[in-house]
Specification:
Keywords (chain B): Coiled coil, Mitochondrion, Ribonucleoprotein, Ribosomal protein, Transit peptide
Strand content of chain B: under 5%
Structural class of chain B: mainly alpha
Number of domains of chain A: 2
Distance between the termini of chain A: 50 Å
Order of helices and strands of chain A: HEHHHHHEEEHEEEEHH
Radius of gyration of chain A: 33 Å
Family (chain B): Belongs to the mitochondrion-specific ribosomal protein mL40 family.
Oligomer: heterodimer
CATH topology of the largest domain in chain A: Nucleoside Triphosphate Pyrophosphohydrolase
Number of helices of chain A: 9
InterPro entries (chain B): Ribosomal_mL40, Ribosomal_mL40_metazoa/plant
Helix content of chain A: 40-55%
Strand content of chain A: 15-25%
Distance between the termini of chain B: 63 Å
Number of helices of chain B: 7
CATH class of the largest domain in chain A: Alpha Beta
GO cellular component, one term (chain B): mitochondrial large ribosomal subunit
CATH architecture of the largest domain in chain A: Alpha-Beta Complex
Protein name (chain B): Large ribosomal subunit protein mL40
Largest interface: A-B, 46 and 44 residues
Number of strands of chain B: 0
Shape of chain A: elongated
Chain lengths: ~260, ~190
């Protein structure tokens, strides 16, 4: 008991010595995860397809016949009667009278004329990664080439915070500066969605030890990165699977993966 | 009348007094007080009862009307369907036992699949919340002020509209043919 008391009382005494040296200065960065949400619904996998068919069959079994089906049956019965010679062909209005089958053929014909847009776009075929009109079933994320240290990296757009800014304002500014005014996005709230930190190489630690990046989540409303701005930057819109392959730093990839869907 | 008499008597009695200091004048512009009609208490009670009944009747009528709900047309089965039910029933051969078995298995498989999907959804949500909390903690370590700014409610988000994914993407520059809007719903008081 006494020994434990001694231990507790001695703890705060030893602590300050270590923390005074460890009070390091970190640079604050804001990063932005811009996502283009899926435009079309996901294709069904085999199980989903099977179950969908089952539901349709059950629905058909439980349903009553529609007016169209009733009319079709009546038409068939009438035709049968005429064939047997039991009924007269009504000459005057047979031309005007359309059978259910005729109507159905007309509807099918009309539907064939209407061309639905394809779920795969030309940009998919051309593998044009800087287009947002691509991978419509998936969420795609924006990566921008940036210079960190001596090397160029494809990263989420990020930038350093200046004094007097909140992190959200920094994130908005960074996105505007790097991607131009064309890109309209919706930020999801004031709180960062993810976090990553790294230390600078030991010869550059004079001012601050490293960088702490706070990632904000935003969804694309319209537009794309301004391609005409100077200097031109390289950017890509990639689905989740392709994303981590682009990051050279595994720790960075891990941090980003934590807040991806 | 009796009051006048009483006054006359009073003035007569005080005749001597009036001569000295009290002036009594005949009542000018006066008229006899109306005799208060004495109503039979039973009639009063009857009247009150009638009033009460009237109000009660009104309340009853209102309540009756309140219970009458506006009909929901979509929920009412059309009469022609009820009449022609036998004619419209599908005459399908009963399901074979193999088919039933297969359907039951498929349903079980589907239940497992949806369960797994739900579990993984919850895991994703947990992971996202954790990531956000970690970020907020780190921000708080750096600066209390920035943390306060980060946890503020974003009022721009409050009426948020998000359009869900569709089966086929929208056709570019598609001019939808105009149609007529026909107001069909009937009015209900």
């Amino acid at each position: 008991m006494l020994r434990r008391l001694v231990q507790i009382s001695s703890k705060p005494l030893t602590r300050p010595q270590s923390t005074t040296a460890a009070k390091e200065k970190w640079d604050l960065y804001a990063g932005v995860l811009v996502e283009r949400l899926p435009v079309v619904s996901k294709s069904l996998n085999p199980l989903e397809q099977q179950f969908q068919e089952l539901l349709w069959r059950v629905e058909h079994e439980n349903s009553l016949k529609s007016n169209h089906e009733i009319k079709h049956e009546r038409d068939l019965a009438q035709a049968e009667l005429i064939k047997q010679g039991k009924a007269q062909v009504e000459v005057d209005d047979s031309a005007a009278k359309q059978t259910a089958q005729d109507l159905k053929d007309a509807y099918v014909e009309e539907f064939k004329k209407f061309q639905l847009a394809a779920r795969k776009t030309p940009d998919d075929a051309a593998n044009k990664t800087d287009s947002t009109d691509r991978c419509l079933e998936e969420t795609v994320y924006l990566l921008v080439q940036q210079k960190i240290g001596q090397q160029q990296h494809l990263l989420l757009p990020q930038g350093k915070r200046t004094d007097g800014e909140s992190m959200r304002q920094t994130a908005e500014r960074v996105l505007r500066e790097q991607c131009g005014q064309n890109l309209q996005v919706l930020f999801y709230g004031n709180a960062p969605a993810g976090f990553h930190k790294y230390k600078y190489p030991s010869n550059q630690r004079s001012e601050s030890v490293g960088a702490k990046i706070f990632f904000y989540r935003a969804s694309l409303l319209s537009g794309n990165v301004d391609a005409k701005q100077q200097p031109t930057i390289k950017y890509e819109w990639l689905p989740k699977e392709a994303l981590s392959g682009k990051f050279k730093n595994t720790a960075y990839a891990e941090s980003v993966n934590k807040f991806l869907f | 009348m009796s009051l006048l008499n009483a006054l006359a008597r009073l003035s007569l009695q005080n005749c001597g007094v009036a001569a000295r200091m009290l002036h009594t004048t005949p009542i000018l512009c006066a008229e006899p007080l109306k005799k208060k009609k004495k109503l039979d208490p039973q009639i009063i009670k009857q009247r009150e009862d009638r009033k009460k009944k009237k109000i009660e009747k009104q309340i009853r009528r209102l309540e009756k009307n309140a219970r009458q709900l506006k009909p929901v047309e979509e929920l009412e089965v059309p009469i022609e369907l009820l009449d022609e039910k036998d004619k419209r029933q599908r005459k399908l051969p009963p399901l074979s036992s193999a088919e039933q078995e297969q359907r039951a298995l498929l349903k079980k498989q589907w239940a497992r699949y949806k369960h797994d999907e739900k579990v993984s959804d919850f895991q994703i949500i947990d992971r996202l919340v954790q990531a956000q909390e970690k970020a907020l903690q780190e921000l708080r370590k750096e600066s209390e002020e920035l943390y306060r700014a980060a946890i503020e409610v974003d009022l721009q988000l409050v009426p948020v509209t998000i359009k869900g994914p569709v089966a086929t993407p929208p056709i570019k520059n598609y001019a939808s043919p105009d149609g007529d809007y026909i107001q069909q719903s009937s009015k209900w008081e």
